[in-house]
Amino acid sequence: MSDAGHKQAEIKAGPLGGARRGWPLLSLVLAALLALACAAVAWHLRGTVPLWLLASGGVLAFLGLVVLFGFIAGIVHIGPGDRNQAFFNGLMDAMGDACVVTDAKGRAVYGNAAYLKLVSAAGLARLVGIENIYTGYPEVARPIYRLSQSMRERRSATEEIRLNAGSSAAGAKTHEPVWIRISVSPIETEGGAGHSLWRHQDISADRAKQEGAFSHLQYIINYLDQAPAGFFSADAEGRIAYINATLAEWLGLDLEATTGGALRLKDVVSETGAKLLTGIAPSGEATLTELFDIDLKARDGRIMPVRIIHRTGPDKDGRLQPSRSLVLPQSAKGANAADTAISEARLSRFFNTAPMGIAELDGQGIIRNANLNFIALSPHAKRGAALENLVTPSQRAMVRDALAALSGSGAKSIHVDVSVISDPPRSVQFMISGHNDKDASFLVFALDTTENKSLEVQVAQGQKMQAIGQLAGGVAHDFNNVLTAIIGFSDLLLAKQRPTDPAFADIMNIKQNANRAANLVRQLLAFSRRQTLRPELRSLTDVISDLGNLLGRLLGEKVELKVVHGRDIGMVKVDVNQFEQVIINLAVNARDAMPNGGTLTVRTSNASISAQQSGELSMPPGEYVLCEVEDTGTGIPKDIFDKIWEPFFSTKDVGKGTGLGLSTVYGIIKQTGGFIFCDSVVGQGTVFRIYLPRHHQDKAALEEAREERPEIKRADHTGKGTILLVEDEDAVRAFASRALASRGYTVLEAASGEVALQIVAEKGDEISLVISDVVMPEMDGPTLLKELRKRGVATKVIFISGYAEDAFEKNLEGELDFAFLPKPFSLKQLAEAVKDVMGS
Question: Which of 45, 679, 721, 728 is the most buried (most CB within 10 A)?
Fold first, then answer.
């Protein structure tokens, strides 16, 4: 470096080189004190010393003081040059790279020898920053701009720039391109002056090495691409990281479209084959090499039988590395090949396509080989995993005990029923047997019994519900007879009392509580599907709209009601009163599940159930009308979810619920011919979905017919005529007889069907109406009706029963000329029914 260059560098390095510091304030104080002392001495000696001597001494003293005070202030340096500055210059030159220090505005304040040489090569006569060196070079302008932005934001940054051969830019060469790396880093100091260090490096040699290595790698890849065998590499998630040109050509794939993880194993192998190749558990064991005989899928749909030599291994952390898989084509053998010539490949295919899971275990219970069906049982079913890890923790001891028993006792096989970990969980039966192969100690045959277990649970639940229904129906029938007598005799007593009589209120309480009991019995009959329904074609839109105000009052102010009607909703055949009861019961349950408020949504729509959906929902395919009742409540816990339809099951406090709400809903929907399903998530809410068969009928014509139908109201319940009353319950018969007699009728009583036939034989011409119970010993009501018709008796008949009308209609063999009055009934209801039938 020239002397001028050194001087320039040293001048600029002053603030950064660590020059010696002085004490200017102290030097000024000392100078003032000495000046006063000299003045005092001169004044004292003014008469004894010549003036010229005093003047000479003053000049010499002044020069000495200037040097002394300059040294103290750090302005004058005595001795060799500043060692700190020299050390700093040497340190920066030893870095080898061109370095320059700039201030906060980008102005150069220091440059080492290599940088001054770079500045000189750029044809500049003064120290400037890198931004100024490359001004006017478009290929460098953008990276330099980004570096300048980083400098101003006090961030470190690096850019690699290619200078073309023959460029006039600083650092370029005439016959070859040059790669340079320019970096900038902030210099943090106490004063915070905002200086930055720029480095300029020639990295052409490093780039040449990288390009050489890349060329060599490309050379190797070309060899692999043109190899006479297929090759691919796939990671544990099934993404193909590399596929060679040979395999891509076999499969008809565009090699360019297979890069970047765009190709997956399932694109070239069946889904089960992909699971087979990726079904290995990560472990710290050595590299594993396996053989698989599977089929590949070409782009045009061709199936290509191949043998895959599949090698996988873990990294230092135990994670699976991408595979190295060699693909060898195989010629498919005909089905008529001799049995003795079955190839190893065909045996492998039989193993992998077996209809049950098969696995080989070593002596420690580790899966060494498994077919596709076994791997599909659970995400944990992988080669290298322990068999016990597939099952739930509570059942792992069973698997260990089974393996230990086979090892110690010499037993041939052991069956173990377990639940494997999957989503959803699966029920599996393991048939484990000993195996004397050198690589395997046990053979495991796994049979998925999930569907069988589910069917067993459904059948058991169905039988349970049927048994409860039969019991509930029988109890309800007997209660209806008792309640008919209680309500009836209460009516007879009330007819003789005035409202002001003391006993009137007591009798009314008896009747009201009997009616409450009758409501409970009706709910039991609804669950057992033995209540009487009066179905009619209606639109659910109209039914739910009519319920809107009532639901609003039931839900209260905290719960918001939303009703969403679908378009062109089909007609359904329902008993309107009973369906309203369904919606009310569901709404009340939803309200109780939202103590802090929420939203209840009632939604209707048309639904078409396909054959596939019918299997999933366990209902016939066809056209349905769907009604959804959805809340945002607490949800139903899993441990009680299977019990919600059972009668008398309730989670409410004692006295706040009968436990018959949902069982009533279930019975009504089933008796209507529909289906109901429930989905619930704890903390999110519950939705009930009701599917009712859709009926196609002109809605306008239906409304017109309904409007034309007059409503008959009768105030006079008296009449004349002879009525044959057939009832085996004495209390019911006594009440009905007195009630009819009080309305002007002549009543003939019979305790059984046989007695009734005798009375008909004697007084058949006098009898105007027969009222008969349905369920009676020896001869029931339907049998009595058939006997009457056989004998030519055309008398009108009213059946009374605690069961539903359709429960005995099937026994009448087409005899539809009868009326029906369900128990329990009041005096007024009995009189109205008799008046209507006799007057029709």
Answer: 728
- Other Cβ atoms within 10 Å of 355 Cβ, number: 7
Indicate yes or no: pTM above 0.70.
no
**Which tokens hold the place of 119?**
């500045």
Which residues pair with residue 426 across a beta bridge? 420
Q: Which of 395, 465, 379 is nearest to 430 (CA)?
A: 395
Tokens at 685, concatenated? 């809410």
Torsion over CA: 706, 710, 715, 720 (sign): negative
Beta bridge partners of 242: 233
Q: What percentage of the chain has pLDDT greater than the value 70?
A: 73
DSSP string, 258-320: GTTTT-BHHHHB-HHHHHHHH-B---S---EEEEEEEEEE-TTS-EEEEEEEEEE-B-TTSPB
The candidate with the shortest Cα–Cα distance to 281, out of 366, 161, 392, 177, is 366
Quick one: which of 444, 437, 369 has its CA closest to 402?
444
Nearest CA to 515 out of 810, 829, 754 is that of 829
pLDDT by residue (tens digit) across 343-388?
Answer: 565 666 666 667 778 888 887 888 877 877 787 787 787 777 888 8
Question: pLDDT by residue (tens digit) across 533-566?
Answer: 667 888 888 888 888 877 888 888 888 999 998 8
Which amino acid would we find at residue 650?
A: S
Q: In what order do the strands lie in the sheet with 819-822?
A: 746-750, 722-726, 767-773, 796-801, 819-822
d(CA 273, CA 289) in angstroms, rounded, equals 17
